[in-house]
Amino acid sequence: EETLEIRGGEVTVVESYEGLEATDVLISGGTVDVTSSDDGINGAGATSGGGQGGGMQGDSGESVVISGGTVRVVGGGDGIDSNGSITLSGGEVSVWGRTGGGDGALDANASITVDGGTVVIGGSVLVVPDGAQSFVAASVTGSAGATIEIVDASGTVVATTTAVDDFGTVFVSDAAISAGSSYSVVIDGSTAATVTAGEAVAVEGPGAGGPGGAGGGQGGPGGQRP
User: Fold this and answer.
1) pLDDT at 51
2) In Å, what is the CA distance from 211 to each residue of 1, 91, 126?
3) Would you state the pLDDT for residue 79?
4) Which of 17, 19, 48, 124 has the fewest CB atoms within 10 Å, counting from its CB?
5) What's the first-to-final CA gap in the chain, in angstroms?
6) Res 101 pLDDT > 70
7) Is pTM, for the whole model, over 0.90?
8) Residues in Cβ contact with 36 at an 8 Å cutoff, skipping those fewer than 6 apart
């Protein structure tokens, strides 16, 4: 369990406890589709153990880096978890996690950075990332199969996806989203929320600690998450 690197091809995990796990998980190409009952992709080393990410533990140096490809994760626990850092800089990434229980679609003990690509997250507890690319986050609910659209003030759809699991919040990051601008989150043709890009959604309760705050500042237990 040192480094797992995926540069191309197709990787499908149809059933697992933790889908992909290594000290460092690096994905730069290909198509990756992971379904798990716990964490979908986990950056965890032999000394730190699996499934211990999430703000309340120390940074032990592991990493999950996605710079290209198409990655879909449906996790029963955390979607993408790291005992160190998570970096998303390219490709198309969609993560669907639990709608309760304190698990997060993205969960890391160190930084979570979104610098590029298209990132779509549906679940419950979602960390506000660092990084250059802005995002839209909203507390909205829906079921698997729902159509989710992000619509700007002029009525242009800047991002769209179909939910593969039930969700209680939605997070979308894309180069077409401008920080400070207003966007509507439309579920199955009806506006569910109107939000400002780059602003977090406050979430309280178990699992709400870790990196938080709009603009990617570091928060403590109970910090803001989208």
Assistant:
1) 46
2) 26, 23, 10
3) 87
4) 17
5) 31
6) no
7) no
8) 13, 16, 17, 18, 19, 73, 74, 75, 76, 77
